[in-house]
Amino acid sequence: MTQNEPTIHNLFDLTGRAALITGGGGWLGSSLACALAEAGCRVVIGSRDRSRAQSAADQLPTTGNVKHHGIALDHMDPDSISTGFEAALSSVGAIDILVNNGLEPSTHDLTDVSFAEFARHQTNNAGYFELARRVRDHAVAHGKPASIIMIGSMYGVVGSYPDAYEDVCAASPVAYHALKGGTVHMTKHLAVHWARDNVRVNCLSPGPFPQHTVPAEMVRRLETKSPMNRMGRPHELKGALLLLASDAGSYITGQNLIVDGGWTAW
User: Fold this and answer.
1) Closest Cα partner for 97 from 62, 49, 138, 57?
2) What distance in Å separates the CA atoms of residue 82 and residue 174, rounded to the nearest whole number?
3) 20: left (phi > 0), else alpha (psi -120 to 50), else beta?
4) What are φ and ψ of residue 256, in 5° steps?
5) pTM, rounded to two decimals
6) From the first residue on, what is the mean pLDDT of each consecutive set of 10 residues in the chain (266 residues)?
7) Structural domain boundaries of the chain?
8) What homologous superfamily is domain 8-260 in, according to CATH?
């Protein structure tokens, strides 16, 4: 080992750092927030409902004197982004890591989505960008590095199988596919512009991680599309997130890390 080379423990340790994660109390967001907290990070959870955000923050594990915080932040509203980001800074002093995970969903597929709903869904990316820019500007102003992680989707890379949804439920929303494809490319664009600022930008794209409320028949069909023949579990995103958030990924930027059980390898 090279003298003074950091250990694996050192590389993945987030002690002394602070992260802002939107939607940190949701299905996947709660595991992502937990991963950050378990690595020693101070976590700020953003949600439209501050009480829900604080409740989720209170459930996170703590090490030493670390405290976690919940703030009101709606990434679909530029005014809320401004006040929410300032609240995050007031809570922890600095933001070293941003996880753009919150999502206002689209509820209609390509057969019945309206122009207005399709257009509004793309606003999710506008919110992701605005938060990312604020973190970048904050990092540059203080001469510090930062890691920005966009939560994408395998559906930002591949289309869905029509037969997985047929006669069971609506197809995966076309607005969502357009959104996540944009998230993946925005990641690459920001990464090459901000690399000189020591700000890394990466995308973490989950594959099939359905909640328990989705139709069982759809899940069964999706399992047949996966080389691993099963769906993902939220905790299986934790290692990938920490790689991108920590010094373990210090030479990784502009990448889309797909965690999909091999789905996109077919």
Assistant:
1) 138
2) 30
3) beta
4) -115, 100
5) 0.97
6) 87 98 97 98 98 98 94 98 98 98 96 97 98 98 98 97 94 97 98 98 98 94 97 98 98 98 96
7) 8-260
8) NAD(P)-binding Rossmann-like Domain (3.40.50.720)
